[in-house]
Amino acid sequence: MSNRILLLEDDISLVDGLKYTLKRNGFEVDLVRTMKEALSHLPQINTYDLLILDVTLPDGTGFEVCEKVRKQGNQIPIIFLTASDEEVNIIRGLDSGGDDYVTKPFKLGELCSRIRALLRRTGNTNNNNHTVIERGDIWIDLLGSRVQLRGRTLDLTSAEYRLLCLLVRNAGRVTTRSSILDELWDSTGDFVDDNTLSVYVRRLREKIEADPSKPDHLITVRGFGYQWNEVSV
């Protein structure tokens, strides 16, 4: 059965090539061109497997659509198409609940690889036999995608949640930057700007550390990657 994608894109010069390539790669595609049109699909959003949202629209932004989807409690994978890779846009996308972003102009093959990687990751989320991870003062409910640190529930984006799960599963061991990119994005990690990972880490530290500039949990191992340090309750 084909994966269904809702594509929100108003650039007519892009639309035909996008739809053709996605269909040729085995995806079913429904196209909408405005924020209003996209929001009209919200009641049926569960019939889709992934959303591709252009950031700049004639009547709003893809961020706003993403926020409304997440407010419904829906964790459907979301990729942003953005004309800018400025850090402020990356952060806005992460904060609104996006999973990945692709900067225009992009190769259509790259987008398809990112889609497949994202569908693989989200499809594997619930295939874990262990439903709860506990490491010192942190508790993760994998089925409910909930995280508590010292009894306080953390409000994480889906990308921050996946990064945290990866680090906590490997507590006490160094997780290299390249292995994080492989796990969170695609085996061809060069598709993703390494700077994006630094942004994820910094945002995560702001949510979990008492003093983000002197982290107790999420430790940088210079030249290698990151390590989750288990802190006793």
From TrEMBL:
GO MF term set: phosphorelay response regulator activity; transcription cis-regulatory region binding
Pfam families named in the record: Response_reg, Trans_reg_C
Gene Ontology terms: cellular component: cytosol; protein-DNA complex
InterPro entries: CheY-like_superfamily, OmpR/PhoB-type_DNA-bd, Sig_transdc_resp-reg_C-effctor, Sig_transdc_resp-reg_receiver, WalR-like, WH-like_DNA-bd_sf
SMART domains in UniProt: REC, Trans_reg_C
Keyword Transcription regulation: yes
Residue ranges annotated for the Response regulatory domain, each copy included: 4-119
Highest taxon of the lineage: Bacteria
GO-annotated biological processes: regulation of DNA-templated transcription
Residue positions, PTM 4-aspartylphosphate: 54
Classification via CDD domains: trans_reg_C
Positions of the OmpR/PhoB-type domain: 130-230
DNA-binding listed as a keyword: yes
UniProt keywords, alphabetically: DNA-binding, Phosphoprotein, Transcription, Transcription regulation
DNA-binding region in chain numbering: 130-230
Function noted in UniProt: May play the central regulatory role in sporulation. It may be an element of the effector pathway responsible for the activation of sporulation genes in response to nutritional stress. Spo0A may act in concert with spo0H (a sigma factor) to control the expression of some genes that are critical to the sporulation process.
Designated name of the protein: Stage 0 sporulation protein A homolog
Organism of this sequence: Lacrimispora amygdalina
